[in-house]
Structures are given as structure tokens and as C-alpha cells.
């Protein structure tokens, strides 16, 4: 089946910012998820970049109100592992035809990454109407997505990569941006110090951003 657009729209609309999480510390998984959810950011992308990522996902999925997905998904095998870990969605840095086709065999939606109009058109031909724009700032940022809006009017984007609070405001003002992804909400020093109160405050600040 093509991308479950209704399910993905529902998830991506829950908050203006999706925290992009790189975490290997299992003990921090639940308190981090609890802080983010309490701060108003329930949709969490946990990247598959650490040895314990799938276990982190499984722990975070136990937190009431958390909508947990996997990130940096690059293979059908990782898709299967994501489903088994309790993910509700998957995110990929790219949109290879093999990956798009493999996603049709899994019960949770994929948010594929694109960098160019050609890649966006290819994903659209596979039935995708929500795409990740990555790495957003390195590719030219909000002006590029603004230029995409007219020729790719049927596609909505979640830009990720190099975004902070102020840049997020600029992206969220664009009509073709449904939300943004970022990691500024979870500073490495705050996680190391187990300062989840600070993370909750940063999450609340990010949750206060609104679509124009």
C-alpha cells in the first residue's frame, strides 16, 4: 500500500517539533521520553545509530502519551526491527526505490527523506505525500522549501538537520511545512547530567511554536 497519509498527518500534526534522539543510555530512555511528553512534544524519533537504539525505542514506547518512531532507517531489516520494537512510524534519511517498496510490506508509515525535486517526485510517484527534507540547513534551508511550494504543491515536508528554535519559526511559517525535526531540545550536557527538568522546559518552549 502507499504511504498511510492520514496516519502520518495525524502524528506529524501533534506538535510543531519532533525531537530527533540519538541515545544509547537505556537508563535515560524513559525519563527523557517522559520529559519530552510532559513538555508537549509527544512524537519522538529515535535514530538507529547506537547499539541500544531498539531497546531505547521499546522503553520509550512504554511512556503514556509517547508516539515513538525509528530514525535513520535504511533497510527492510531495520523496518522489521522497528515494528518489533513498538514503533508507530519510521523515518529515513533518503528515499531509495527499494526502501519505498519495502515500506509497503509494513504496517506503520514511513517518512522518507529527500533533497531534490526529482527525489520528491519519485517519492510522490510511489504514493508519498509527506517527506523529510534533509539535511535542511546544508541544502539551503527555508528558501529552498519555499521554492518547492508551488511546483510540488501536493507535498508537505518535515525539514530536519541544523535547525534550532529560531530557524524552526522560519520553517513553520511556510505553507508546505507540517513540522520540523531537531535535537536542540535535548542538549548532550543535559542528558549526561540527567537534567530532565531542563529538557522539559526546552520542550515546552518548542511546543509553543505554532504553524502560521
Explain briefly what this protein structure is.
The chain is an alpha/beta fold and 212 residues long. Helices cover 41% and strands 16% of the residues.
Q: How would you summarize the topology of this molecule?
A:
Blueprint: H1 5-12, E1 17-21, H2 26-38, E2 43-47, H3 53-60, E3 67-71, H4 76-84, E4 89-91, H5 97-103, E5 110-111, E6 113-114, H6 117-125, E7 130-133, H7 142-148, E8 156-159, H8 165-172, E9 180-182, H9 188-192, H10 196-207
Parallel strand pairs: 1-2, 1-9, 2-3, 3-4, 4-5, 6-7, 7-8
Fill in the keyword field for this structure.
212 residues, six-stranded parallel β-sheet, single chain, alpha/beta, 16% strand, TIM Barrel, three-stranded parallel β-sheet, 9 strands, globular
**Number of E-type strands:** 9
Radius of gyration: 16 Å
Order of helices and strands, N to C? HEHEHEHEHEEHEHEHEHH
CATH third-tier fold name: TIM Barrel
Unreliable stretches, pLDDT < 50, 5 or more residues? none
Mean pLDDT: 96
Question: Main β-sheet, in a few words?
Answer: 6 strands, parallel
- The backbone outline, from C-alpha atoms, is globular
Structural write-up:
This protein has 212 residues and is an alpha/beta fold. It has a single domain (5-207), classed as TIM Barrel, CATH 3.20.20. It is 41% helix and 16% strand. It contains ten helices and nine strands. The strands form two sheets. Strands 5-4-3-2-1-9 form a six-stranded parallel β-sheet, with helices on both faces. A three-stranded parallel β-sheet has the order 6-7-8. α2 (26-38) packs parallel to α10 (196-207). The longest helix has 13 residues, at 26-38. The protein is globular, with a radius of gyration of 16 Å. The N and C termini lie far apart (32 Å). The model has no long low-confidence stretch (mean pLDDT 96).
